[in-house]
């Protein structure tokens, strides 16, 4: 066999192995479990931490409640909702029991904070306490 045939054969084996691995996951996890890769959790959590920091800064640094950048606060809350939703089970459970235990409560807190921040006049009380919702899960980490 020539070198190019060896490389082609090796490439074919690698492609088949990668495809097989993703298929094995479908067989090893029950249908009601959503597999969430650790890197997906880490990436989303970093983005959520950034959004919480921006949110707290927008509220804390405003000279008064009527001078808070409402659009920025609502935008950060929507970002948090989208990121947290991406870590929820599509049905049943995920492969992360800590997420399963706390994510619904966190999402409820964020949704209520967003609804209040969208009001006229806006109420930022709950938005200012979102970091405390993070502590419910992260105090043990």
What would your notes on this structure say?
- This protein is an all-alpha fold.
- The chain has 2 domains: about 1-30; about 35-140.
- The chain is built from 5 helices and 2 strands; from the N terminus they run H-E-H-H-E-H-H.
- The chain has a two-stranded parallel ribbon with strand order 1-2.
- Helix 3 runs antiparallel to helix 4 and helix 4 runs antiparallel to helix 5 (about 130-140).
- The chain is elongated, with a radius of gyration of 21 Å.
- The termini are far apart.
- The model has no long low-confidence stretch (mean pLDDT about 80).
Rg over CA atoms, rounded to whole Å, is: 21 Å
H/E order of the elements?
Answer: HEHHEHH
Determine the fraction of residues in helical runs and give it as a percent range: 55-70%
* Shape annotation: elongated
Which blocks of ≥5 consecutive residues have pLDDT under 50?
A: none
How far the N terminus sits from the C terminus, by CA atoms, comes to: 55 Å
As for the number of domains, it is 2
For the largest beta-sheet, the strand count, sense and barrel status come to: 2 strands, parallel
How large is the count of helical segments? 5
Biggest sheet: strand arrangement? 1-2
> What's the total count of β strands?
2
State which percent range the strand residues make up. under 5%
Structural class: mainly alpha
Would you tell me the overall average pLDDT?
Answer: 82
- The quaternary state of the protein chains shown equals single chain
